[in-house]
Amino acid sequence: MSVVTRNRTVEPVPAFAEALERLRGEAAGSSGRALEERAAAFERFQALGVPTARVEAWKYTNVSSFANRPFGLAPRGTVEPDLIIPHFAGGHRARRLILVNGRAVPQFSHLGGLPAGMTVRPLAQVLAETPELVERSSVNDEPEHSFEALNRALVEDGAWISLNDGVALDEPLQIISLLTAGESAFMTHPRHVIRLGKGAKLDVIMTTVALGQADSLMNQVETIEVADGAELTIDRTLEQGQGRSAITRSRYVLGNRARLQQTNAGLGGSLIRHEMEVRLRGTHSEAILNGLMMPQGTEHVDTLIRVHHEMPDCQSDQFYKTVADGRGRAVFAGKIFVHKDAQRTNSYQKNDSLLLSDDAEIDAKPELEIYADDVKCSHGATCGDLDPTALFYLRSRGLDEALARSMLTFAFTGEVLERIKDESVGHVVRRMILDRLPGGERLAELG
Amino acid sequence: MLEIKDLHATIEGEDKEILKGVSLTIKPGEVHAIMGPNGSGKSTLAYVLAGRDGYEVTEGSVQLDGEDLLELEPEERAAAGLFLAMQYPVEIPGVSNMYFLRQAMNSIRKARGEEEISAAAFMKAVKEKAGVIGVGDALLKRDVNRGFSGGEKKRNEILQMAMLAPRICILDETDSGLDIDALRTVADGVNAMRSPDRGFLIITHYQRLLDYIVPDHVHVLAKGRIQTSGDRSLALTLEEKGYGGVLGAEFAEAAA
Fold first, then answer.
1. Of A390, A395, A415, which is closest to B75 when you measure between CB atoms?
2. Residue of B nearest to A430 (CA)
3. For burial by CB atoms within 10 Å, which of A156, A168, B122, B187 has the most?
4. Size of interface A-B (CB pairs under 8 A)
5. The predicted structure's pLDDT at residue B255
């Protein structure tokens, strides 16, 4: 009898250790105590290893190949302004922080005239001066995964956004994160911290765009705190081409009567994984997470959400739509935890999918774990093809089949589009969707 | 112009014939009404003519201006000049009514090798036709049929028909779910389109619509065949005596 050993993790190549060596004394917060913490995080990364499909949370998304890829640190430098300007969103009065390969570029950023009590800084400055503030987070409930540990070891920069109690920014704040083209494989580990004090209000636009071709890994970690009575909206777009991978881990914590509304359009890329953990830690709070995934070709998009209702009288809503074409693969795993004290919880989760090709795959895994007795929870996942009646209706009006299919696919995504807060981001996402539809350019005047 | 000869059709994958030899010729300028009890094959006839998937023509032919219609895809039939106003128009969220109309017009023009309509000419035409049919600006700007009332949906169908200016118009139970005012507006829209080179096939369960759109010929379809034909008075007789009274007891509709 033979014994087959199947590993749950893969040991990473030395490239990661080399990256840490290169950052020593160079990057912000890479000496003294801060360096010790980086080293400790790196040890945790090595101990955790890179997960294989044997780990439940990574069952459908194979990242083990990342362990063997000799990613170098992302090249320094910046890009021409005319490559940045087309990605401006939020109107001409929006404030902007520009990052290139995960590092802030102050000369292109526009952060003037912020209200008193609001700070937007490159995270590197905070890491250099007061690194303890970055880790002050109370959002570290679920265990760190290896990429998160890797981020802590190799972080160089990111966005630091903080609003004191009662502070509101009337215009959106846009974080544009650009990834450059490159010959050799590279990685970047940005870290964003967003903190809203009591009653603060902020609309954030997070625009991430890969320019041209490269084999790159963006491994981003975010901690987002929304205190009592504060309101945060986030509109996200992620445009990643072939060869581009993005792993994002976002942790949110909401106080009493706080509100979070996020709409996430990460349509495709070689490997996109966004893991979110939301903690409703006060009463009467609300968290809304919307999203759209549209993998095609050989793209892979994975969304993993865990919403924790810790306190009574909160609401949460997960609303995701998926369109998979070609050999594309989409994963949606959403879990609602209703803790013992969280009476009168209203929690919803919906994932509707369109499977446009026989070779595409969608894995939906809705889960509920409820320990309170007075709750309303629902989850639903649907998966199907385009409605033949609707298809016939359009064709009977003269539209050819390809156009009719594209129009109906676009219509399917409409409910997510409508939930985007900022109108200009809505236009961007519309263009991103149409770019993915056969004959989409013929639908450009739509609406 | 539209010539249906001995048309037999089944639902794909089923043996049961729904149309069992329908023959009908519509000449330019004529309005034909097809009446019939539930389950007689009326809607199947409409769908087979428009080319909906899921039906199989087992025998017979359909020609539009000499062209074999059954060989064509639904969009090719539209380009050839066939229009079906549907009983249950489909909602298309995220696509504005106005945009959809223009896309449909241009698709048909393109298929015919014609120039696309200019934005200005389109706007002028749509305002004019929408006015006649009672489709307001608000409906034009809304998503196709989304949240429309039954009457608004039917009016919208007639607006599409008016804009696409087909050779042959098929109206499938357009009167169902309409109150008397909406019925009148829809009928006015249809009557405004009557012309010596356009034919109409009006499918209806009740003769009410035919008070407003007066047909040249009335046919009674039952059990997959046209059982009898006549002029307008046939519709009135049917109203009075019922399908059983006209066709014989075996055709009587079961009491609802």
1. A395
2. B94
3. A156
4. 85
5. 44
- Give the three-class secondary structure for A4: coil
Contact between chains at A410 and B95 (C-beta distance less than 8 A):
yes
Domain of residue B217 covers 2-251
A8, two tokens: 């749950």
Q: According to the model, what pLDDT value does residue B34 have?
A: 95
* CA pair distance B100, B143, nearest whole angstrom: 9
Smallest CA-to-CA distance from A37 within A189, A153, A123, A128 is with A153
* B165 domain-assigned: yes
d(CA A293, CA B98): 28
Distance between CA atoms of A286 and A288, rounded to whole angstroms? 7
CB-based contact A336:A368 (threshold 8 Å): yes
Say if A431 is an interface residue toward chain B (CB within 8 Å).
no
State whether ipTM is beyond 0.90. Answer: yes
Q: Which pTM was predicted?
A: 0.90
Output the CA torsion sign for B43, B46, B49, B50: negative
Distance CA A432, CA A434 (A): 6
Total count of domains within chain B: 1
* Helical H segments across A29-181, by residue range: 32-48, 81-84, 123-129, 131-134, 146-154
Task: Name the one residue in this structure whose structure tokens are 């490997």.
Answer: A271
Subunit contact A396:B73, Cβ cutoff 8 A: no
Residues of A (103-142) whose Cβ lies below 8 Å from B: none
Given the structure tokens 């629902």, which residue do they identify? A378
Q: How far apart are CA A20 and CA A43, in angstroms?
A: 11
Q: B164 CB near a chain A CB, below 8 Å?
A: yes
Q: Which of A387, A397, A431, A437 would best serve as a mutation to test chain B binding (most B beta carbons within 10 A)?
A: A397
DSSP-derived letter for residue A340 is T
B142: contact with A, CB 8 A cutoff:
no
| pLDDT for A1 beyond 60 | no
Q: Is residue B171 part of a domain?
A: yes
In a domain, B194, yes or no: yes
Characterize the bridge pairing of strands A231-239 and A244-254.
unpaired
- What is the pLDDT averaged over residues B82-102? 90
Q: Residue A248 in 3-state DSSP? A: strand
Whether residue A403 lies within 8 A of chain B, CB to CB, comes out as yes
Query: Does A445 contact B99 at a Cβ distance shorter than 8 Å?
Result: yes
Residue A354's beta-bridge partner residues?
A: A323, A384
Average pLDDT over every residue of A350-366: 94
Are the Cβ atoms of B78 and A414 closer than 8 angstroms?
A: no
Residue B256 maps to a domain: no
Amino acid at residue number B37: P
Q: What is the pLDDT of residue A85?
A: 93
- Beta carbons of A239 and A274 less than 8 angstroms apart: no
Distance CA A24, CA A32 (A): 10
Q: Look-up: residue for tokens 């979070």?
A: A260
Helix (H, G, I), strand (E, B) or coil at B167: coil
Supply the CATH number for residue B93's domain: 3.40.50.300
